[in-house]
Design a protein that fits this description.
Length: 486
C-alpha cells in the first residue's frame, strides 16, 4: 500500500507552453500544463523552459510627434526594397524608415495629396505603389524609388476604364507582373506588362469586403468577410482561390471556413495561417487544412488586420488590441504556443512589421503618435499561473515556502513573486524578491495566508525593478502541507 503523506510539492516549469488553452475564456482557469499562464503581459517564453521579461518599446529617431511621426502609421512594408530601407504609410503621409530612424530629409515624409487614410504599400516592378483613401473614394500613388511621386497614379495614368479605387481597406500582394489588391467588395488587379489597371476585376457583391490577399502555391488566396462587424451580430467569411494568371472572372475553388470574420492570412513554409473570429466570438489563429480551418491557439484583445501581422524568428507575430502576440514554436519538437509578448504602445494600434529583424509597431493616442522598436526588457511585464487547487480529503493547504530556480542573475536583476489565494480573493501581501548577483536558487518563505486556509492558489510574477536587466525564471517549486479546514 502506498504511504500517504501530509505534504505536497508543486512544480511550475516548461514555461514555453505559453497561455493556457482556456486563458481566453477564464483568467481563473485550471486548464493547462505546469508552465501555462492564465494572464500575462510582456513576457518572453520563446526560449525552451525559460520565462523572462519580453522586450520594451523604444521610439525610433524622429519616431514620434516631436519628430516626423505625428499621426498613426497604418502599414509598414515588411520586406525592404533595398538594404536597410523600407516604407510605411500613415494617415496622410508616406514615410521612409531605416533600422534606427524615420527619415526626415526634405523629401520624406511625403504628404499625399487628398489622402485621408493610408492603407498599404507594395514594392512592385521597381517602384513603390501606395494605396490610400480620400474623402470620396480612394487612389493609388506611385514613387519611382528615386525622386518622382505621382499621388494620383491610379486615377490618371493606366487605362482604368470606368472602374475606380474604392474607399476601403486595400490589402495587396504581387506575383511577377501582376499586382492584386482588395478594393472593398471588389478585387482589383494591375498588370504591368500591359499597363492595365482593373479595380473591379472580381465582384463579391453588396455587403462583402476583401480582408486580405496572398499569392501561394501558384494561386491567389482571397479572404472575404460579409455582414456587419458590430459585437453580437453574426457575420461570415470565406477564403477563395483564384487562378494565378488573374485573367478570369471565375474563382478556382473555395475554402468553406465557416467562421465569423477573418483578420489576415499569411503563407509560411507551405502553410496558410489565418487569424479569425469564430462563431462563439473568440479570436483564434489557425491554418488551412484541405477545405477547412483548424485552430491552433486562442487569444484576446481584438482581431488583427492585414497590416498587423509579420514573421518574427519562427513565430507569427500580430497585434491583438494594444498587445504584440506571438504564436508558434522556436523548434518543431516544442508545442505550438501563444504568448502576450510585448506592449504595443498607445491604445490605438496601427501597423506591425519586422523588415530589419526586430519588430516595429505603430500606435497613437490623440495628438501623440509613435513608431517604436521592440528592444531591451519591459519593466511592466507580469505573468500569472493557472489556478492550482489544494483541497484534499476535506483538508486545505498551507504553503511553507517557495523555491525559485533562475539562471545566474546579473546585478540589479529582480523579479517579484506574490501568491493569490482562493480564486484570487486575497494575496500574500508584500511581494517577495527574486534577486542577487550570481544567485541561482532563491528560497522564499513566511507567506501570510488566509485564516480559512488555502483552497487554491496561483503564482504571480512581475519585473518592476529590474532596470531593463533580464531575470530569467527556470522553475518554481511550492512546498507545503495539508491542515484541517478551520
Amino acid at each position: 500500500m502506498a504511504e500517504k503523506t501530509n505534504n505536497f510539492k508543486i512544480t511550475l516549469k516548461d514555461f514555453h507552453v505559453g497561455a493556457s488553452p482556456a486563458a481566453h475564456l477564464d483568467i481563473l482557469t485550471e486548464s493547462g500544463g505546469p508552465g501555462a499562464y492564465s494572464d500575462a503581459q510582456g513576457v518572453d517564453v520563446h526560449t525552451p523552459k525559460v520565462l523572462q521579461q519580453g522586450p520594451a518599446l523604444a521610439d525610433l529617431t524622429n519616431g514620434n510627434q516631436a519628430g516626423v511621426v505625428d499621426e498613426l502609421i497604418r502599414f509598414i512594408l515588411d520586406k525592404p526594397p533595398v538594404a536597410n530601407e523600407t516604407y510605411g504609410i500613415s494617415t496622410t503621409k508616406l514615410h521612409k524608415i531605416n533600422p534606427t530612424d524615420v527619415v526626415s530629409d526634405g523629401t520624406f515624409p511625403h504628404p499625399i495629396t487628398d489622402a485621408t487614410e493610408g492603407s498599404s504599400v507594395l514594392d512592385f516592378q521597381g517602384a513603390l505603389y501606395y494605396f490610400f483613401n480620400k474623402a470620396s473614394g480612394g487612389d493609388i500613388g506611385k514613387y519611382d524609388l528615386a525622386s518622382s511621386f505621382t499621388d494620383n497614379w491610379g486615377s490618371s495614368v493606366p487605362a482604368t476604364g470606368s472602374a475606380a479605387i474604392e474607399n476601403a481597406p486595400h490589402p495587396v500582394a504581387k506575383k511577377q507582373d501582376i499586382m492584386l489588391f482588395g478594393n472593398g467588395r471588389y478585387v482589383g488587379t494591375y498588370v504591368s506588362s500591359t499597363d492595365t489597371l482593373s479595380p473591379h476585376k472580381l465582384d463579391f457583391g453588396v455587403g462583402y469586403e476583401v480582408a486580405d490577399v496572398a499569392f501561394h502555391a501558384n494561386q491567389w488566396w482571397l479572404a472575404v468577410n460579409s455582414g456587419v462587424s458590430a459585437s453580437g451580430n453574426r457575420a461570415s467569411s470565406q477564403i477563395y482561390l483564384y487562378d494565378g494568371a488573374a485573367t478570369s472572372a471565375v474563382l478556382a475553388d473555395e475554402v468553406a471556413v465557416g467562421v465569423q470574420r477573418i483578420g489576415f492570412i499569411l503563407p509560411i513554409n507551405g502553410i496558410v495561417f489565418v487569424a479569425y473570429q469564430d462563431v462563439s466570438g473568440s479570436y483564434a489563429i489557425g491554418y488551412v487544412s484541405s477545405r477547412r480551418i483548424l485552430p491552433l491557439a486562442f487569444f484576446t484583445g481584438g482581431l488583427p488586420t492585414f497590416a498587423q501581422k509579420t514573421l518574427y524568428k519562427n513565430f507569427v507575430a500580430f497585434l491583438a488590441g494594444a498587445t504584440v502576440v506571438t504564436a508558434g514554436a522556436i523548434t518543431p519538437d516544442l508545442p505550438y504556443a501563444i504568448s502576450n509578448f510585448a506592449n504595443a504602445g498607445y491604445a490605438t494600434v496601427g501597423a506591425i512589421a519586422a523588415p530589419f529583424g526586430d519588430i516595429l509597431v505603430a500606435s497613437n493616442s490623440g495628438s501623440d503618435a509613435r513608431l517604436a522598436k521592440l528592444t531591451g526588457y519591459d519593466d511592466n511585464a507580469y505573468w500569472t499561473s493557472i489556478i492550482i487547487p489544494l483541497m484534499q480529503d476535506g483538508m486545505v493547504g498551507y504553503i511553507d515556502f517557495v523555491t525559485v530556480r533562475t539562471r545566474a542573475l546579473a546585478a540589479n536583476a529582480q523579479c517579484d513573486l506574490l501568491l493569490f489565494y482562493n480564486q484570487q480573493d486575497s494575496d500574500s501581501g508584500t511581494a517577495k524578491q527574486i534577486t542577487g548577483e550570481n544567485v541561482r536558487r532563491h528560497t522564499l518563505d513566511k507567506f501570510p495566508q488566509p485564516k480559512e486556509g488555502v483552497e487554491d492558489f496561483c503564482v504571480y510574477l512581475e519585473w518592476p525593478n529590474s532596470a531593463g536587466v533580464v531575470c530569467p525564471i527556470l522553475e518554481i517549486e511550492i512546498l507545503g502541507h495539508y491542515i484541517e479546514k478551520p
